[in-house]
Design brief:
It contains eight helices and 17 strands. The chain is α+β, with helices and mostly antiparallel strands. The strands form three sheets. Strands 1-2-12-3-13-16-14-15 form an eight-stranded mixed beta sheet, with helices on both faces. Strand 1 and strand 2 (48-52) form a beta hairpin. The relative contact order is 0.18.
Length: 354
């Protein structure tokens, strides 16, 4: 990973981006892609699109990751100054208590999600409270003092920063899916360095975690795209506490993951596998029998059937404050995306033989 690309990744991971509040992160992304894209545009909801203009007679491929992360939102300010919260996306109620958080008000406010001390609880009655029953303590003594700092509707995220682990592995909150939007941008840069004939869009979508909303917008707006590649994280199930029946073939450090089935168009699966083989990139396969759970599910039905593919980054501990990825996998995903863009002209048309 080149130095500027690593700085870009660090900046993305350090910038909070809960669904519906992605502006700061999208600004980081747009500033980076402006260094090499022919044009960068942003729509009314903050979906950001950069383009490398290729040969007009060559196909057009969009590489897309989503900018948003899960989090919380201030639902109410109580008389005693505590904040009631609701989910943004699929926040995990089993990991939230006892965590440092930031309330993203006009000025950031530190807080904690309260957890009654073990000395004051009956262990036999311990349960995981729903997020709606949990609260944030910002230190305010009453509602008036709390209202001086926060208001209803302010987003909240865990305050955990990214950490470098042993080797090339890092841990952070919001890896899902700042790594995917990083890969889309880097895939575009690497395609532009190759000066590929394909016209390549890089897209950073909003509000994936609350229903693929940004992808639904982009899928309609980019009406000249021949194929979408959605880049997201997927479950690496190689940690010891994953039950046997939930284990899959995906491992951390074993390379990009190519989806098969459901939204994944067979011609794009073949293109990605061939591109990986040519570029000597190790890849893993993952089954998607019903849906991918990614922006690909919105892209492929956006305009009556647009060939789409889900390429994933192996990720441990998804939707927690300590998601873990391997930088080698991430770098390889960006290389794969550039290779797919480079090989697209020889793989079109993206059709099935019936």
């Amino acid at each position: 990973m080149h130095e500027r690309g690593r700085m870009f990744l660090d900046d993305l991971l350090a910038t909070a981006s809960p669904s519906g509040f992605e502006t700061a992160s999208q600004r980081v992304w747009a500033d980076y892609v402006r260094e090499f894209a022919d044009e960068v545009t942003v729509d009314a909801y903050g979906n950001a699109v950069a383009v490398h203009e290729g040969d007009p007679d060559a196909p057009t491929v969009a590489l897309a990751g989503h900018a948003d992360e899960i989090g919380f939102i201030v639902r109410d300010v109580l008389d005693d100054g505590f904040l009631r919260i609701s989910r943004i996306g699929g926040s995990d109620r089993t990991v939230s208590k006892g965590q440092h958080v930031t309330v993203h008000a006009d000025e950031p406010v530190g807080g904690v999600i309260g957890q009654t001390a073990i000395h004051l609880r009956d262990p036999e009655k311990d349960t995981y409270d729903e997020i709606s029953g949990q609260f944030v303590d910002i230190g305010a003594t009453d509602a008036d003092e709390a209202h001086e700092h926060v208001e209803v509707g302010d987003p909240v995220t865990f305050s955990t920063d990214f950490e470098e682990l042993v080797g090339d592995r890092i841990a952070a909150r919001g890896v899902d899916n700042r790594t995917g939007t990083w890969a889309a941008a880097e895939g575009l840069r690497r395609a532009a360095v190759r000066d590929v004939d394909t016209t390549v869009y890089a897209v950073s979508t909003v509000q994936e975690e609350v229903g693929l909303r940004g992808a639904q917008m982009v899928g309609v707006d980019l009406d000249d795209v021949d194929a979408f590649v959605a880049v997201d994280v997927t479950h690496a199930t190689d940690n010891p506490d994953v039950e046997t029946e939930r284990r899959g073939p995906v491992e951390l450090g074993a390379g990009p993951v190519i989806g098969r089935g459901s939204a994944n168009h067979s011609a794009l699966v073949d293109l990605a596998r061939d591109a990986a083989a040519t570029a000597q990139i190790d890849v893993q396969l993952q089954a998607a029998g019903t849906r991918t759970g990614t922006d690909a599910d919105a892209f492929y039905t956006a305009r009556g059937g647009v060939p789409s593919l889900n390429v994933s980054i192996p990720n441990r501990y998804m939707h927690t404050p300590v998601e873990v990825v391997d930088l080698g996998d991430l770098d390889a995903v960006a290389d794969l995306l550039a290779a797919v863009a480079d090989g697209a002209a020889d793989a079109t048309p993206f059709t099935v033989d019936v």
